[in-house]
Amino acid sequence: MALRRKLIAGNWKMNGLRADGLALAEAIAARAKSGxxxxxxxxCPPATILAAVGAVISGSxxxxxxxxxxxxxxxxxxxxxxxxxxxxxxxxxVILGHCERRHGHDESDAQVHAKVAAAWRTGLVAILxxxxxxxxxxxxxxVAVVASQLAGSIPEGATPDKLVIAYEPVWAIGTGxxxxxxxxxxxxxxxxxxxxxxxxxxxxxxxxxxxxxEILSLADxxxxxxxxxxxxxxxxxxxxxxxx
Length: 244
Ligand code: PGA
Hints:
The protein is α/β, with parallel strands linked by helices and 244 residues long. It has ten helices and eight strands. An eight-stranded parallel β-barrel has the order 1-2-3-4-5-6-7-8, surrounded by six helices. Helix 2 links the parallel strand 2 (40-44) and strand 3. Helix 1 (18-34) runs parallel beside helix 2 and helix 1 (18-34) packs parallel to helix 10 (233-241). It is globular. The protein binds 2-phosphoglycolic acid. 2-phosphoglycolic acid binds at residues 11, 168, 173-174, 204-207, 225-229. 2-phosphoglycolic acid (PGA) binds at residues 11, 168, 173-174, 204-207, 225-229.
């Protein structure tokens, strides 16, 4: 992997029945095969269709990721999916600590930390999400919040080949709002000073084909974690193409 080659990751969230998900995967794989993407590509479909999507994207260069994992390896954890199971389904990556987990499911830094350790235990790259709420930004606490999430969620032994950070301000997710370019540049610079050298730092939150180029051109932005726009193959591809 080139140092900090850009990564465009699609977080499909809880979207995609089998037919839709496979059609989306086919469309993305076809584009990836026909062009030479300037970035690494990753799709993170719902757990139910991971293996089927994995079969569709096989050979296209597009990687497969989960959206969450349990910290335990196996056992009596009804409804949970372990990192080992994601790996077994063909994943190489897993999104952890997304704000829809931190805030929607009350996940603490300690839990996220244990999940990152579980991902590493089985050889998955952890895409660790951090980001402040609107209220935290309004009172100027965004740097403190992000620094404390990083300190609390990253286990010992982090290296750039197994950790990716996604800075995702909670108030920018799915809202069409984005921080100013200066604000994104500034917080990414701060994160760069905290994480191991050459760790990729993605921006996420309302990235679309219109704003992608200017965001992805910022010095410390190494790609994007894309939600809504990753469900539309043309948009997802346009964002990948916007990588400088
Ligand atoms: P969005 O979601 O692109 O729809 O804002 C990003 C994310 O939640 O990862």
